[in-house]
């Protein structure tokens, strides 16, 4: 039996929603082997970034090779704030204060070293036979994986307005869809459905014979579904 893949959009400290979505994934996959790819932005803005990281690390330890976590721009800001004092105000103003509070600390220099190590080792892109997975996107114009790491973490335009075939379907997040629904296009699917802003947390369901999601699993931040 061929593997399923589930791609999860931006989580932003919503640990309860993540727990419920992972349960939905486990129920949906049944006995089928499955891989989960998280598209980044585990921290900031929401109430429990520390819990999100703990859940992901524990799941990865239980199922080696079955959970792939990518780095998002908010993880990058967190790393930058730890290593460069001048970067800290930007991170704190963009949700970093909530992240520090979830760890019970007030200073970026007090972030636990195992957490920093985990974040620093996260890749910024993943691919399988049919798809590219990235936090923000790629610069249009060249097929394949964009070598520019900053673009992978931060790009919006011209990626979002361009209908460009990168050679594989691109699964990404980064740009919140306040509708709570994924943004589906011919060559890309945006799975950031604004959970932390009152939307939903979304997992795209990816079958091994079709590049784009064949369906979606969703939960609300406030446990409505």
Question: What does it look like?
Answer:
With 225 residues, the chain is α/β, with parallel strands linked by helices. It has a domain at 4-40 and 124-220: Purple Acid Phosphatase, chain A, domain 2. It has helices at 15-29, 49-62, 73-83, 88-103, 113-120, 149-154, and strands at residues 4-8, 34-38, 67-69, 125-127, 131-134, 169-172, 183-184, 188-190, 200-206, 215-220. The strands form two sheets. The chain has a five-stranded mixed β-sheet with strand order 3-2-1-9-10, with helices on one face. Strands 4-5-6-8-7 form a five-stranded mixed β-sheet, with no helix packed on it. Helix 1 (15-29) runs parallel beside helix 2. The chain is globular and about 45 Å long. The chain starts with a strand and ends in a 5-residue tail after the last strand.
CATH topology (level 3) name of the domain at 4-40 and 124-220: Purple Acid Phosphatase, chain A, domain 2
Query: Hey, roughly how much beta strand do the residues contain?
Result: 15-25%
Which structural category do the helix and sheet elements fall into? alpha/beta
Largest sheet: 5 strands, mixed
CATH superfamily of the domain at 4-40 and 124-220: Metallo-dependent phosphatases
Low-confidence stretches: none
Average pLDDT, to the nearest integer? Answer: 97
- Fraction of residues in helix: 25-40%
N-to-C series of helices and strands:
EHEHEHHHEEHEEEEE
Question: Judging from the principal axes of the Cα atoms, what is the shape?
Answer: globular
Gyration radius from CA atoms, angstroms: 16 Å
CATH-defined architecture of the domain at 4-40 and 124-220 = 4-Layer Sandwich
**Largest sheet, spatial ordering of strands:** 3-2-1-9-10
The helix count comes to 6
Quote the distance from N terminus to C terminus.
Answer: 30 Å
